[in-house]
Fold:
Amino acid sequence: MIRRLVPAAYRPVLAHRVLRRLILGFAVSYLGDGMSFVAVAWLAIELAPEATEGLWVGGAVAAYTLPGVVGALLLGRRLRRLPPRRILLADNLVRGVVLGAVPVAWATGVLSPQVYVALLAVSSLLHAWGSAAMYTLMAELLPEDQRLAANTLVSSLNFAATIAGPAIAGVLVTYVSSALVIGLDALTYVFLAVVVLSIRLPASRPAVDETATPATRGVFAFLRSHPELLGLLALTWFFNFLYGPVEVALPLHVTNDLDAPGTLLGLYWMLFGIGAVLGGLTVGALRQLPLWPVTLAIVVLWGLLLLPFGFDAPVAVTVVCFMLGGAIYGPFVPLSVTLVQAKSPPQHLAAVLAARSSVLLTASPLGTALGGPLTTALGPRATLGASGLATIVLGVVACALLLARATKEAGTPAGVGGRPR
Structure:
């Protein structure tokens, strides 16, 4: 009976004994990440001087992710030769041990804002490689026709964790301690490391195929000759970049503007996650729509749903807007990836997707880092509104450029500057 309730695409994935155990580890780890959405910023607020708390919140949130870009660039030559299992294990051990030092330092009274940001930065140094190793490992365990179902399942668990994690963390930071929540996050990484250690895997190849390196290096020249793909990459980068300040401004909006407890911040992120899960379930229907118009509509609508924060709308209104924003934001990644797949020649698709991933590693963390000084200068409410307004402008400009390109192509006779249509 239960088997019949599971869609057919997911049955072979869940029947895979090794992958089933890994998915359990991923789910627990994602729950810790969901709790950290609230706890990382909240602990920074507690530790920072009042006059500079915006800067420290931005620094803490950025430190939780941005050094992964540095690790990807500096450690790539060494890590690409290691099997993905070993990289995944190393990432989770580093995260678990270093994040576990946060509550210890807090309990002993030596946790300053500087120490806190430094620990977060060290903990995330291998995380970009760890994420890549996770998807490489799943690809090695499954045949090609089952990988989409596995990736979708793991992605859904990640969004589901943004529902449960912030709700749990909101209660814990209010009634117990935000440092304790960071410690629980550390334990979830240790749990995943134990799972990885306990499984037996087939012999695996290096995390990065050395034979793909020349193609990857030349992909940016390829993108320059394909303006539609380059434009999509730029749109995705700026969309993620403009989202970054939200992660800094929202917790400060709750504490400073609303003088509310951590439970409200947890509610915001929980409802955002619910919206994202529901929005993700609509991707199948959205595939029947023109991909470019739907992608641009998502950008503009997300910006519109942030504007009520800037206009000092009632809390009930902004809570509903943030949930709707999650439903809008959730499908963006699969839609943009589908658009890349549709517009890329098959022989260049892997290189284009690899370039997309490496470039986008910087977008949201840089936006988050910018969110600190912006929030300090403008205030949390104005920063949220400005992020929304800038995102609307981004969508409108992208729409204008796309229409101009379509008009130019429509006016180009067949055989002049392009292929017949």
Remarks:
- Residues 204-217, 414-421 have pLDDT under 50 and may be disordered.
- The two ends are 51 Å apart (CA to CA).
